[in-house]
Amino acid sequence: MAVTAFDPISQAGIASQLRYRPEVGLVEEPVDAAVVLVVVDRIDDQSLQAIRAAGRRGGARVVVVATQIDSRDLLTAVEAGCCGVLRRVEAVPERLITAVRVAVAGDGTLPPDLLGRLLEQIGRLQRDALGPLLTPGLSKREVAVLRMVADGKATSEIASTLCYSERTVKNILHDVTTRLQVRNRAQAVAYAVREGLI
Question: Is this model's pTM higher than 0.70 or not?
Fold first, then answer.
């Protein structure tokens, strides 16, 4: 794991929280990392370039730690290639480590309140401007699973609620991400919301 930030104090602060934690291995160069924490004040053009660059270096998974983020920023950051977002105020060592583990596992971490507002905003835009869209290529169970992912549910919760095994839920998500040509759950949800599929 590596940390990248626009100011040295933020970079040193996050790195110092994780440097001596045995759960993660901190490296200096993002090119050597499986996960890169990108620390920003807010999502702007410079931040988006950093997210894209971090993801291109060796195919690292990107988790954004931002001081300010809203639902529009969230969609923009996910489209740029991040698989997780944390507010800086919530970026305590345990949360950072959890976000890194989740990213390594191929999943994403998003603030549930922002995701809810994002879904509401997209739904309103769809109703007002686009009208109802069809859901080509997604079955009812795929839509149900994606909606639960959007609500912040873990794989085990989704499996329990829908009476599926966890393996079935993972297979459904793998099929959807492959078909939509996205890298992770967060991007699948963002794509599905943007296209009006959920």
Answer: no
Q: Which pLDDT value is given to residue 133?
A: 43
* b/e 154-176 (16+ beta carbons within 10 angstroms → b): ebeebbeebebeeebbbebbeeb
Block residue for tokens 């085990």: 156
Confidence at residue 33, expressed as pLDDT on a 0 to 100 scale: 83
Coil, strand or helix at 97: helix
Which residues are within 8 A (CB) of 181 and not within 5 positions of it... i.e. 6 or more apart?
none
CA dihedral 8, 10, 11, 12 (to 10 degrees): 80
Integer Cα distance of 124 and 12 in angstroms? 41
d(CA 6, CA 183) in angstroms, rounded, equals: 26
SS3 82: strand
pLDDT at 159: 92
Residue 134 is predicted with a pLDDT of: 42
Per-residue confidence (pLDDT) for residue 95, from 0 to 100: 92
Q: For residue 189, report the phi and psi dihedrals to the nearest 5 degrees.
A: -65, -45
* Sites in the chain below the pLDDT cut of 70: 58, 118, 121-137
The closest of 54, 58, 44 to 83, measured between CA atoms, is: 54
Euclidean distance between CA atoms 22 and 99, whole angstroms: 15
